[in-house]
Amino acid sequence: MLAFVFAIAMAVPTCPMTIGIDDAGTLFSNRFYGWYQVSEKTIANDLKGGCYDDANPTAVSSVKLMLTPHAPKAKIDRVIAILNQRGWRKDRIQIEIWDGKAPASLHADPGMSSS
């Protein structure tokens, strides 16, 4: 029985999303298992679409917001507003200070693709 529960737990897909804002206000995201420059519209669409494999769309399961020390407050506020519009309150968002370099490990599930 325990093995069955474990197998089901392992089969539940996750769809984490990481967003970065650098000192210039440029947005980055871990779309398609890379670290790419994106627009506010792309972030909104990715939050709406989530991740998918060939037949199983999955809602975004977690959001990490990575900020450089001098990221513009106006850009941060706009991204937070986008997140709020999609149901992500500040208390559900992991916020980290970021050095501006592409993260060494993006927490993406290799079996899923961002939309």
What does this protein structure show overall?
It is a single chain. By secondary structure, this protein is an alpha/beta fold. It has one domain (14-114). The protein contains 3 helices and 7 strands. It has helices at 2-11, 40-49, 73-85, and strands at 16-21, 27-29, 36-38, 51-52, 62-67, 93-97, 113-114. It has a 5-stranded mixed beta sheet, covered by helices on one side. A two-stranded antiparallel ribbon has the order 4-7. Helix 2 runs parallel beside helix 3 (73-85). It is globular, with a radius of gyration of 15 Å. The relative contact order is 0.27.
Instruction: Tell me the count of domains.
Output: 1
> Strands of the biggest beta sheet: in what spatial order?
3-2-1-5-6
Bin the strand percentage: 15-25%
Classify the secondary structure makeup into a structural class.
alpha/beta
Count of runs of 4 or more consecutive helical residues: 3
Mean pLDDT across every amino acid position:
84
N-end to C-end Cα span? 35 Å
Taken in chain order, the helices and strands follow as HEEEHEEHEE
The gross shape turns out to be: globular
Strand segment count: 7
Radius of gyration equals 15 Å
Summary of the model, kept short:
The protein has helices at residues 2-11, 40-49, 73-85; strands at residues 16-21, 27-29, 36-38, 51-52, 62-67, 93-97, 113-114. 29% of the residues lie in helices and 23% in strands.
Keywords:
115 residues, alpha/beta, five-stranded mixed sheet, two-stranded antiparallel sheet, 29% helix, globular, disordered C terminus
